[in-house]
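DM between two lab members

TW: hey, do you still have the YceH family protein entry open?
JB: yeah, one sec
JB: this one, 222 aa:
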Amino acid sequence: MQHFPEIQLTFQEARVLGCLLEKEILTPDSYPLTPNSLLLACNQTTSRDPVTCFTGDEVAEALRGLSGKYLVEKNLGGRTPKFEHCIQDVLSMQRSERAVLTVLLLRGPQSAGEIRQRTDRLHTFSSLEDVEETLTWFIDYPHGPLVRRIPVGEGRRVETFVHLLSPAAADGSSGTVTPSAAADTPAENDWRAAIEARLASLEAEIAELKAGHAPRSDDGNP
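TW: and the structure you got?
JB:
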């Protein structure tokens, strides 16, 4: 039986929370976010999996849900209300841990190599082992695991990890996706899954090679 942590989010709430965590680091000058900026962040086509087409009402509902769970608060300092996360009041995390959680919220199941690559602008991990250590911290979280390890098998060529803050993520299902993505045929889905599995394998191998080979000094020695 799958056990979930105390924090339980809808797919929309997970996407909104991930966007707030991401934009706090990447665009600090425009953070906290207005509802419109947050809508654009949720539906952007880069660094998101799946790509969504949320409506303003869906984002507003997600913000209400997150507020009720003490994960988001509204800032009324200007003409337009702005929103910021307050996850630090619920989960005590270092910057490295917040970076890993952010990409898991925004991009679904990923290998340790993919996570290291995709967190680069949020936090620089010195090695793949550092990423795995952070993932273990989430898996062994004292109040219940926040991340689950997905072993190799069933079409997966590398071990992947998924957050457990949303049952939709843990079950491998997704929320509102773009019409083009929803209309994919089974054959296209199989082809895409095979390509993504191969890319994940290559990215993991490259990350491991980079982690194990420090650059040499240019002193003429072999």
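TW: got it. The radius of gyration is 18 Å. Confidence is low (pLDDT under 50) at residues 173-193.
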